[in-house]
Amino acid sequence: AVTAGACANPEAPPSERAPGTAETGATTPRPAADPTAAADAATFGPWRRRPIAPSPQVASAAEDACRAQQGVGETPLTVMDNRGEGVVTLVFTDAAAAFVCHATVRAAGGATADVRALPDVVAGPAPAEGKLGAYDLQVIDESSGPRVVIVGRVSDVPEVSVSFDDATWGRTSMRAGWYTAWWPQAALALTVATVDRRNTVISSFPVP
């Protein structure tokens, strides 16, 4: 298992208050958080074991770059995975085909991408309940060092996770029977596993 009392001197109404006098007990409101800035900081920050939702601008740039590549066309977007370093992984699938797209987004806007078809994953047997199905594992050489990308099929489970040799776990992005994640090859992933709501491993396989 993996486990308020009355005041003697009432406060003057605002119209009688001396200019510049603050209302008793008033606090200065904090600036509202900028969700786009927070999302972009994570997108262009270091790699993280758990995915984060990209800003709409980043998501749109990544998808547009992928759809411009040969083969993807109007294939539905199934999963988008964003976990730092300006890299977004998108998986497009329908009943007959699947594509994984590696998009590199720029903080100034726009993105570049490359796409690969996954015929063997589509053709593989449907995963049994709670189980992992066919998958694709790819090592991509980057200037910062090689990284590993996994894309696979899974039945209806709460989560698909990746264990690492430092006793930590990462979470994949998962939707509609597909999952994906990436990690630096130096992180040394050990297993990919389906996990229930009690964080108990249901099924797993070792990372080659």
How does this structure look, described?
This protein is mainly beta. It contains 3 helices and 12 strands. A 4-stranded antiparallel β-sheet has the order 1-2-3-4. A hairpin with a 6-residue loop joins strand 5 and strand 6. The two termini are 23 Å apart.
Provide the fold topology:
Elements: H1 35-43, H2 56-67, E1 77-82, E2 87-93, E3 98-105, E4 111-117, H3 119-123, E5 132-140, E6 147-154, E7 159-164, E8 169-171, E9 173-175, E10 178-184, E11 189-195, E12 201-206
Antiparallel strand pairs: 1-2, 2-3, 3-4, 5-6, 6-10, 7-8, 7-11, 9-10, 11-12
Mean pLDDT: 88
Write the element-wise H/E pattern from the N-terminal end onward. HHEEEEHEEEEEEEE
Strand content: 35-45%
Give the tally of β-strands: 12
Shape: globular
C-alpha-based Rg, rounded: 24 Å
Provide a count of the helices. Answer: 3
Spatial order of the strands forming the largest sheet: 1-2-3-4
Q: Main beta sheet, described? A: 4 strands, antiparallel
